[in-house]
Amino acid sequence: MADKVLMKGNEAIAESAIIAGCRHYFGYPITPQTEIAAYMAKRMPKIGGTFLQAESEIAAINMVYGVSSAGYRVMTSSSSPGISLKGEGLSYMAGSDLPALVVNVQRGGPGLGGIQPSQSDYFQATKGGAHGDFKMIVLAPSSVQEMAALTVKGFELADKYRMTAMILADGTMGQMMEPVELDFEVKPSPEKPWATNGTKMQRTHNIVNSLSLVPEELERLNFERFERYAIVERDEVMYEEYLMDDAEICIAAFGIAARVAKNAIVKAREKGIKVGMIRPITLWPFPKAPFKKAAEQVKHIISVELSMGQMIEDVKLASECKVPVTLCNRAGGMIPTPEQVLAHIEDIYSGGAK
Amino acid sequence: MLQGKRITLLCGHYGSGKTNVALNLAYRLSEQEKKVAIADLDIVNPYFRTKDSSNILGEKGIRLICSEYANTNVDIPALPQDMYVITEDKSLDIIIDVGGDDRGALALGRIKQAIIDENNFNMLMVINCFRPLTQTPEDTIEVMAEIEAACGIKFTGLVNNSNLGNDTTANDILKSLNYANEISRITGLPVVLTAFNESLESEVKDKVPNPFPLKLQEKIF
């Protein structure tokens, strides 16, 4: 048995979920995340777990609701259009304060769109993604190793805050292969006194439900939930800074875009242009503080995205519009090249970021 | 290297590195002044396809036989419209990149009989001990049996392509030799190639059977 293994991002998510104690997977196949389901189909029966291909994404998310209600670690995965279908279930789970891990390996949209990679579900993931006031913890891996680590972390955060954690990856991250080490310390699932796992005639029965017909009561639940969200925003922000110490231009990018941007930064530095990067790892909670600080230091921020510009809004808010923020993007399944990002950097540099 | 066989089929667990081995075999054949074609019969995976290398194949005069939907948004298990060239045009030396696992190998069904009748082929299993579901000889042999059952063609040899992507060291390749030998011993099939990134050539060339340095596709991220 080798210490390191060579895995696809999708496989790393699946195996790490198993390591995190997840024994229940429900899903419906959709490119480019199908390897997660395929891997679970092979592995779950061998370890006494449940792999179930549901009749639809909607069915799958409601199975997740059920297993989570019973207190077990549970997950589903899909790609963009499938996540839209899960929207109702995600809202119901938020309204019932149920933990779970949901994986979105994004593809180009809107609509049925295509099957090539994209980051255009950023709004959907970070701003709620369905009806009602709620948030999900959104984790954006940028390597196969990080896909593995954030899967474990996602289960832990979901349990800790009774929230849905979402891995927001993209088709390239899901399909690319890299060496990984899967030796994680996993925090066991905490006590779940709210779970509907049988009273054993020793307690009153629990109810897991998102229906609340008394507005005063529903308002109170919303206020309480947002107090919990405030703790997540205070304690759980994750980001990586790259060459920011002397940077005059800052790149904001996550996931696959951050990898492309890193190559462009290396090339720009070779030309003497001081560029750095802030890479959000949690997209919600968004790393506001480092961007606020960067806005005091750099002359310009470039948001590199595989979308028509979504994270750029959070970057502008966090930097309080103190410096110009411009977009360098591709959309619809296309990936920006390091050359495109470098050209954007050089444009900004020659235009006055010097 | 391929004992003059006209057709070389490359099968394996998905992610074992079939495409990179296939491309490099095609490059090598084209250097021998042969009329070479590479056929991408992957009906499973729409990402990271032979088509990514269409420019370099064109430069080397290697014909690419692949579904016109590869690398597009059309998510259907399509075969190339010109796949019959494989068995009809006997002036070509052909490398066939078969899709992963037994499901990928199903695509061979249509041309299987013609390949067997012509009886001028290698059927090679690409193996990688660093892939999680084929880490042991036993698991790998199970996948081989599934592939043979799906396509109806028996393996004639093994390609040891054990690697950890960019992190692969010479030691990793040397460590994989036992694994490859054990599969060879149990199945009775020879290790016809030991593949590795060309950057490791000086370190491993003299220590592995039938060394085969690979030129890998460049990554932009």
Q: What count of helical segments of chain B does DSSP give?
A: 8
Major beta-sheet overview of chain A: 7 strands, mixed
Give the name of the CATH architecture of the largest domain in chain A: 3-Layer(aba) Sandwich
Radius of gyration of chain B: 16 Å
Task: Return the domain count of chain A.
Answer: 2
CATH superfamily of chain B: P-loop containing nucleotide triphosphate hydrolases
CATH level-3 fold name of chain B = Rossmann fold
What's the total count of β strands of chain A?
A: 14
Task: Describe what you observe in this structure.
- The complex is a heterodimer of chains A (354) and B (221).
- In chain A, 42% of the residues lie in helices and 19% in strands.
- Chain A is α/β, with parallel strands linked by helices and 354 residues long.
- In chain A, the strands form 3 sheets. Chain A has a 7-stranded mixed β-sheet with strand order 3-2-4-5-7-6-12, with helices on both faces. In chain A, strands 9-11-10-13-14 form a 5-stranded mixed β-sheet, with helices on both faces. A two-stranded antiparallel sheet of chain A has the order 1-8.
- In chain A, strand 6, helix 6 and strand 7 form a beta-alpha-beta unit.
- The mean pLDDT of chain A is 96.
- Chain B is of the alpha/beta class and 221 residues long.
- Chain B has one domain: Rossmann fold, CATH 3.40.50.
- Helix content of chain B is 34%, strand content 20%.
- Chain B is built from 8 helices and 8 strands; from the N terminus they run E-H-E-H-E-H-E-H-H-E-H-E-H-E-H-E.
- In chain B, strands 3-2-4-1-5-6-7-8 form an 8-stranded parallel β-sheet, with helices on both faces.
- The longest helix of chain B has 18 residues.
- Chain B is globular.
- The mean pLDDT of chain B is 91.
- Chains A and B meet through strand 1, helix 7, strand 8 and helix 9 of A and loops of B.
